[in-house]
Amino acid sequence: MIIGVLGGGTMGSGIVQVAAQNGHNVVLVDLNPTILNKSKEKLAKIMARLIEKGKVTSEEADAIQGRITYSQDVHDFVPCGLVIEAIIEDLKIKKDAFAKIEGLVSRECIMASNTSSLSIASIASSLDCPERCIGIRFFNPAPLMPLVEIVPAVQTSQQTLNTTKELIDGWKKVTVVCKDTPGFIVNRVARPFYGEALRIYEEGVADFATIDWAMTELGGFRMGPFTLMDYIGNDVNYTVTETVFAAFYYDPRYKPSFTQKRHAEAGYWGRKSGRGYYNYAEEVAMPEPNRDEELGRKILNRILVMLMNEAYDALFLNIASKEDIDLAMTKGVNYPKGLFQWAEEIGPDVVLAKLEDLFREYGEDRYRPSPLLRRTVHEMVS
Ligand SMILES: NC(=O)c1ccc[n+]([C@@H]2O[C@H](COP(=O)([O-])OP(=O)(O)OC[C@H]3O[C@@H](n4cnc5c(N)ncnc54)[C@H](O)[C@@H]3O)[C@@H](O)[C@H]2O)c1
Predict the structure, then answer these.
(1) Which residues pair with 70 in a beta bridge?
(2) CA distance 75 to 70
(3) What does the domain layout of the chain look like in residue ranges?
(4) Residues paired with residue 275 on neighbouring β-strands, in sequence order
């Protein structure tokens, strides 16, 4: 199958590499010739590194690069069996692109979007044949991150879902299937990792370094929430939070934080601007955390039960299966354990009791336990 990729930026370039490494001929189309050149050069550098490390031979690297056609013309998508769109996150622009491409490709061609936040149903509605449309959401960097969220819209046919899943599984990716709802699995379930950490800071319980220390040293997370937000960029992370909040009809569980908004407004975006929650200037030392274990456990447990509650609620609403939610969080964002596995180790009754304490203390809806968590505990004791 020839694979088409629309958009040669960060994600599109990564997806092209994955498809070409898996033996497909690939057509990459971008409006901007400079981007196409950059994408080509970037892949050449990656291949040189892989040769150096002995991961591919120079013949294999040549073959991979030889399978890719770089083009500014969507007409080159005509022979494709799958086109994956990875252009700017703008619904109108995406819909226009889908409608145009549908007029060129065969009736069997699957048309997919790599969107992080837009509705697949809405993108699919731009097509005469919306049952061929599906979400295929890679994570950045696509060649390295194992997870791919496969998102059928209400219009998507079973055949489109089956063919897509089989193909991406064949690319040695870990696929999870999830409902077409805001944030899909990862961006929904991970919200409290940032949101509760910011709230703990705002209450004056601990500073950034101490919260990060609690999550990494005591919790086993690869990065603390503030280090991670600085890495993602506070501007980007804040926008995602605001989008998810609005998309959930302003459910208080997803309420954005003023601390993050002010950091974004101040230009404290994180590593890319030299300053975020931390100051990355060479001469500035990183702040030391308060290594008080009791405080650290309190912070970790509070964030953890909020994450677990979110996972239970996603399962309650059939966003994905329990196994897929655990896979998504371990393979998409490197959590040390799946949240269900972790909750079962701690005891769902302990998780519920902690959430009920928080709910009683604050009287805020953000701490409401998921009905499925209550039901699980109820079934345990009866
Ligand atoms: N960056 C991430 O971490 C990430 C992760 C998962 C999903 N996504 C999603 O992937 C998509 C692309 O994100 P990105 O970070 O690669 O963006 P990017 O800005 O790096 O690349 C977008 C590319 O699309 C091109 N483009 C824009 N309009 C076009 C059009 N009409 N036709 C052809 N090319 C066009 C631009 O020239 C640019 O090269 C977005 O929907 C984003 O939400 C991003």
Answers:
(1) 28
(2) 12
(3) 3-177, 188-381
(4) 270, 279
> Which of 11, 39, 236, 239 for mutating ligand 1's site (highest number of atoms within 8 Å of CB)?
11
The mean per-residue pLDDT over the stretch 137-154 comes to 96
Distance CA 161, CA 154 (A): 11
Half-sphere exposure of 184 (CA within 13 A, CB side): 29
The CATH class for the domain spanning 3-177 reads alpha beta
Tell me, using a 6 A CB cutoff, whether residue 11 lines ligand 1: yes
pLDDT of residue 2: 98
Q: What residue spans of the chain are helical by DSSP H?
A: 10-21, 33-52, 58-66, 91-102, 120-124, 158-170, 186-189, 191-202, 208-213, 225-232, 234-247, 258-265, 293-316, 322-332, 339-346, 348-362, 371-381
Q: Using the mean position of ligand 1's atoms as its centre, give its distance from the Cα of residue 90 in Å.
A: 10
365 C-alpha to ligand 1 centroid (Å): 35
pTM: 0.93
Q: Is the pLDDT of residue 69 over 90?
A: yes
Indicate whether residue 88 lines ligand 1 (CB < 6 A).
yes
- How far apart are alpha carbons 310 and 335 in whole angstroms? 14
Q: 188-381 — its CATH code?
A: 1.10.1040.50
In this structure, which long-range contacts are made by residues 43-52, counting pairs with CB atoms below 8 Å and at least 24 apart in sequence? 43/13, 43/16, 43/17, 43/68, 46/17, 46/143
Q: How far is the CA of 138 from the centre of ligand 1 (A)?
A: 12
Query: CA-CA distance, 134 to 142, in Å (whole number)?
Result: 18
The closest-lying atom of ligand 1 relative to the alpha carbon of residue 8 is: 39
Task: Report pLDDT digits (tens) over 38-64.
Answer: 999 999 999 999 999 999 999 999 999
Distance of CA 348 to the CA centre of its chain: 26
Residue with the smallest CA separation from ligand 1 atom 21 is 9
- Assign 260 to helix, strand or coil: helix
Q: Which two tokens stand for residue 333?
A: 């964002």
Compute the distance from residue 155 Cα to the ligand 1 centre, in Å.
24
